[in-house]
Every structure is written in structure tokens, then in C-alpha cells.
Amino acid sequence: NAGVMQNPRHLVRRRGQEARLRCSPMKGHSHVYWYRQLPEEGLKFMVYLQKENIIDESGMPKERFSAEFPKEGPSILRIQQVVRGDSAAYFCASSRDRVDQPQHFGDGTRLSIL
Amino acid sequence: QQQVKQSPQSLIVQKGGISIINCAYENTAFDYFPWYQQFPGKGPALLIAIRPDVSEKKEGRFTISFNKSAKQFSLHIMDSQPGDSATYFCAASRIYGGSQGNLIFGKGTKLSVKP
Asked: Looking at residue A96, what is its pLDDT?
């Protein structure tokens, strides 16, 4: 049973570039969540998606950040015009059903901005 | 505003001892309280979770104690082992009656178990 797969594991970008982070949920899971973790901090919720729908984006910064979960393929978290403050670990989690938690996490993408 | 407060920030326990980590929450609408374990370079892994209709849940060496009136819950790790050395996060969520499924995390406790 494959777990939640995230890639790349490490991503280095220069200021002003775009970062694309991908997440493939566990088999049979149709709910995807994205979280951001700063050093020595807990995880902060960003966005919750189901296939082709954004359910809750209350944790997403208003600008430069977007997320999608298409009918086919992985969920994508996109950060445009990255800045140094975007450096963090980004984790994706998936669940079979929102009401029937739990959320299972991938190993994250470590984003570094030069 | 931090909705889930976790303490202590770090904890050192001798092998075989009991590790205790505490969390307090503010939102009485929360109805799901999981604990996650995270090793360096890895994602959080679910350890154990509790709903507010029970006061205690035990799975192996891990026990959650839940005090609804005090809005507090804690993780007890019995017979702590060096392999338990990791960062532990409590979290809370509102999964019934709300539109969100997102988890609100505490800031984490770094546990070191000395041999």
C-alpha cells in the first residue's frame, strides 16, 4: 500500500521563480489537505480540496498561492514569484472521507528560496 | 491566536519512564483530537486519536487522557524507549457540524529518551 507521495522532496528556487509541489493521495482517498511547517513550529493548514473542488482555502495566503486537485493526476500547490519567507516544509495529507478522519501525511517537500 | 497550546516544548525522559505531553484548546466546537509523531525529515504519522465522548483511550504504550470541562488532553507514553525520541504534535479539528476538516496543530514537543 503506497502512502501519500509528495515530490519533489527538495526544491530550490530563486526569488521571483515559480514553485510547483505535487501530491498523490493514498489509494482510495479523495480528500487532500496542504499544510506548511516553519522550522520549530507546528503545521499550519493551508487548503482542503476534493477532486476538482476547493472546499476550504481559509489558510492560503491571498496572493501568489494556488492549489488544484484535478480529476486525473496529483494535487498541485503552486507558488508564484517566490520570496524568502516561502521557505518551509510543505506537507500534503489525504483522507478517505472528511468526516471519517484520520489524515495521513506524506514526507513533505522542503522548499528553499535563494 | 493560537487555538491549541502544547507543553512542554522539550522533554527528556529516562528509558522505561513515562513521558507526558499536555495540550489545551480553546474552541469548544472541536470534536476530534489526534496525536502525531514526527521524525526528522519525515511527515507526521498518526499515533492515536480521541473523540470527546470518552475520557481515555489506550493503544499499546500510548494513552490519551481527555478532560472536556478543562478543555485539556494529554499523551502518556509508558515505558518510554529511545526509539520514541521524536517530535510529538497534538491537534484538534471540528469534523461534525462544520465545513472544515483541517487540523489545528500545537507547536510540538521534542522528546528525547535517554538510554
From this structure: 86
